[in-house]
Amino acid sequence: MSGGRVDFGIGSSSDRVNTIAWNIPWEERQDMTEAALSEVVRMFVEEPYMGCDGKYFKFPPRNIIPKPFQKPHPPLWQACSYRENILKAARNGLGALSFGFADADTTRQWAEAYHKTFEREAIPIGYSINPNLSVLSRLICRPNDSEVTKIQEKVNFWWYGFVHYFGYGKHKPGVTSLWDNYTRGGYEYEWDTGTIGTPQKIRRTLREYEEAGLDNIVFSVEAGTISHEEICASLELFASEVMPEFKEREMSNSAAKRAELDRLSEVIMPRKQTLASTTDIPVVEMKEFRPWYQYMGFPLDEEGFPILREGS
Fold this sequence. Notes:
Radius of gyration: 25 Å
CATH class: Alpha Beta
Order of helices and strands: EHHEEEHEHEEHHHEHEHH
Largest sheet: 5 strands, parallel
């Protein structure tokens, strides 16, 4: 449907409440995620998928369809809630999707570390590489500060809950009331990575990110009680007054970006650890199963399987 504009990302979760409830070993969740991603990309490209008998994932050889429209597969991303995972993504040849940085200097440090690690150490999980560092940032774009503040107030409780569950909250299920704690605590919104404000402020922030070496930025616009109309107004103002100059530069730089990707691919892809290929695809004996036709009135042989005439 998109004509090849799909990206594929995976993450290991920072939510202790639900992860532990499902008996997922907290210290092993990232290893489990990597194991799953390794098998998913094999399913994308192998015909048939030759199966896996690993520590965390076991699956017999099967032809997994449909295959991706993009070849060999969509760009691969890893969610990096923890900063150190940015370098882990680089070592796996993956794009890193992180939360926004506090300032341009911090952005520059992580961008340089990511790209240097990628080129020097990457052993790709996938069959193509994705050398891109992207961050998530909240976007509220309004003509003046008073309108920004008005909308921001609708987000504060949502962010309080986010920090509670994924940060330093203490929670007793069914007892802890986030709303009561929020209303008595005088909480103020803490996460402004420079994209909450007027078009002028946001434009300045994005230029700093761009100059610091950030490849992409993903905006979160829906949260709290912000209305659909307010979201659309914010996006429209951003599209008309902020985006054009960055879109123009992206188009002019696309050839150089593609050339750099080709160069890195030549350096990095030979490092990929490939599995030994085999032509011995296991035969699945259908007589090992007791399927639905036992109950459908077919004439059965002495073993209880349908008598089928070839060519009928």
